[in-house]
Each structure stands twice: as C-alpha cells, then as structure tokens.
Design goal:
It is elongated, with a radius of gyration of 23 Å. The chain is α/β, with parallel strands linked by helices. The chain is about 45% helix and about 20% strand.
Length: about 300
Amino acid sequence: MNFQQLRSIREAARCGFNLTEVANVLFTSQPGVSRQIRELEEELGVDIFERNGKRLTGLTEPGKGILHIVERLLLESENLRQASREYAGEQSGTLSVATTHTQARYVLPQVVQSFRAAFPEVRIALQQSAPEHIAEWVMSGKADVGIATEGLSQFRDLVSFPCYTWSHVVVVPQGHPLLSLKAPLSLQDLARYPLITYDVGFTGRGHIDAAFKAAGITTDIVLTAMDSDVIQQYVALGLGVGIVASMAIEQGKHHGLHAVEAAHLFAPNITRLAVRRGAYLRAYTYDFILRFAPELTRADIVNALNDGVGH
C-alpha cells in the first residue's frame, strides 16, 4: 500500500470516476491510475469500485467505507507535513484563502495587510468563487481557509465560525425618487423599480428573495452579478435600483450614488470562516483567523477542531 494508490482512490471518487481526469490531477497516465487502483484492491481483497467493463461507475458498499479511511489517511499525512514544518520553526509557506469577491474586495485588505506585516515570508493566495466552490476547495485541501456568507455551515467536513454580521443597503443615483421618501423605505417601494443585485447563492441573496416572497411581492430583477462594484456601476448607468452588501458602501462609495438604509427590510447576514475538519493548522493560519475574527480565541478553534463541532 502506498500514498499514490490512496490518492488514486480519492481522486477517482472526486472526479466522478473519470480516470482521464484523475490522471490529469495526479500528473500521471490513465493506465497508471488503473494499475494503482487494481493493485490496492488486490492487496485489500475487496472491490472498491463498481465497474461496467473497464469503466468505473461508482463505489461499492465496502468502497464507501474504504474511501472514508483513505481520505482520513491522506489528511493525516498532510497534517504530519504541516506539523513537521511547524516544529522545525519554518515561518514561510503559502496560506490559501478561498472567498467571495465581496469579502476579498471590502473586508480582507486590512487583514491581509496586517498579516503580511507579521509574516512577511508567507505568501497569500486568494481564490475567489461561489460559496459551494469555496467549501469544496477547503474540504479537498486546495484552500486552507474559506470565507463566505452563504452555506459554509452546511458541510459536515467543515468546521465553521461566525465572524461578523452585516446587512444590505439600497443604492440609487442622485435625484432618485427613493431619496425623497418621507417614511422608511418599504419592500413595496423597492418593487416599483427594476432591481440589480447579487447572483443566487452570493452575498446574502437568499435573504433578499425570502423577504419579498414572505411579503407576497413580485420583483423585477433585471440584472445580477457576483461583484458589488459591477452592481453599482449598472445602477450608476440608470438600469435599476441596487441592493448590495453594507460593506461595499461603507468602504468604497461609488461616485454619484446614494445609500438608503435597508437593514429593516432583510434578515441580517452572518459571514463565516471555515477550515477542514481534522486539519492541522499552522501557527500563521491561526493568526490569520484571529485577525479576521478577533472575537475568537485560539482555544475556540482548537476545541472546535478536536470536538468536531463548529460554533
């Protein structure tokens, strides 16, 4: 039994049993992957994969249990490497952070700046994508830390922590009728105009949709985007009324736009930070997390990782 065999098993499951993709991931050949899998099955005396001819089609029942053990062994081998670097006093490395554009653009700059001052030998790799991809990257080990508002608490293989609460605001161009309302803004007021906001699954979009649905109000969402700056750009062009994250306004107002308070209209949003369950975290990873979420302590994180329970 060797680690290349274990990696072949894990990647076969991750790649939908497509051995060509597995070979690409592992920088080897498809026959080589097939051989690694076959040799491990022969050594264990059990079929891990179901087959249709030479093609893998799924996991056998024993294979499902074996895959869980394989994933754990590979995680612990990575933990061993991380621990050895830590105990050797190595202060260099790469911290990979998977996050959304909103977090990367508006929240992380100060954190990254202070972190780099403390750990100048650590390279930071920011990966931006949708929350479900962020979760996948952290679970697979492609990212050390994941930060997003949506979805991170839903994955069994992640331990996540609430970091801060934020709300949505409405943005309109100068002279827009919504700026002259005598009463607080209502959902009915908003629904009179075309709306521009986030793609489904991004930056609290679920709370926006839920508020209008609960009120029985139909909306005309004419444009969606992942990027707060893009939303504001199209609002400035007069295409509609924008609904964006509060931090996008607080830290970078778009010229010519005005914000209208909307915290009373939509449920508050909680940004969460997640790490892989059971992972060994380098000292600088703890430091980064505590800079992003200073209300946490290292003990909070360690206890959650040890207990397998997020906060």
